[in-house]
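Pipeline run #58 for the internal structure catalog. This entry was flagged by the ingest filter as a single-chain record with no existing model, so it goes straight to prediction. Upstream metadata was stripped on purpose; only the residue string is passed forward. Reviewer on rotation: M.T. Logging verbosity set to normal.
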Amino acid sequence: MPSFACPLILTQGDPAGIGPEIIVKAALEGTLAAWGDALLVAGDGAILQRAAVLLGVAAERRPAANGEELLRLGSHGLRVRPLSQLDPQQTPFGQLRAANGRAMLDYIEWACAECRAGRAAGMVTAPIHKEAIHAAGCLFPGHTELLAERCGTEQVVMMLAGSRLRVCLVTTHLALRAVPAALTSAAILATIKVTAAALQRDFALPQPRLAVLALNPHAGENGLFGDEEQRLIVPAIERAQAAGLAVSGPHSADTLFHFAVQGRYDAVICMYHDQGLIPLKLLHFDDGVNVSLGLPIVRTSVDHGTAYDLAGSGRANPASLVAAVNMAAQMARNRQGRCAGGCQHAG
């Protein structure tokens, strides 16, 4: 059971994607039951009700206090903050709509504001469709950039995590050919520092052990395969070590993950997207969690997209969502902050 009184807010994500479906499925399976009233869905009651019908449950929406609804799902229930009133008949599965993009943004903005005001312990986000939010007028590439701007945070690190492996990215969504030019010692050092501080604060690791990967095969082989290791990565590691951080590297990516999975390191600092996500998803394809490190609020997310091809089929797997809720709760407890209402929360 949660040790905080403020709720975790779960944003519904794209109404045309699998977000509503996996939320309802997780509730029906009982995997969210431990959180009870400590979990609040920011979304759309009618869309969630449609997801329940899809899954074979005659859901009932009941008005509740403070503008909320209670969605009854047999013996289970979900607290819902209705922030959109979409017509399910006009919201077909798997189709991009600007109205859906606007709804997604409303869920995120409200949840972020509640967290920043100390009225929520943290936020867990179901997947959004970037083209839909762009169609609604949002210029941010996704959740992370929007939340960083709203929180006034310059440096945010994307961490993908499971029970056996955590990976943190220096660069994220770039063409592979653009990665070397995007790498700097300052960016690598900032990623190390943000990761170390977040693992201390959010995961209760007093001295996180960080492994920093090389960019090139065999860590560059003394310059034979590239000089980014000596020119960029080693200086960042040395500065981190001088600051008292438990950092080693640069390690060759083809061997390091074997030792990381055995528990030798608490996180791996990766130079580019696929360097970290291939091993992470090999181990945690269903239950991986996307975590935004460095924000003043707790934010976790599913590690998958809207899956338009699966939406409406009832076959989407809620494991990543459940893992994201559990991890957000762990982070909120570890932060041991105090919200305006006197409860323990994340901010």
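catalog note: The domain at 1-152+296-347 is CATH 3.40.718.10 (Isopropylmalate Dehydrogenase).
catalog note: The longest helix spans residues 98-116.
status: ready for reviewer M.T.
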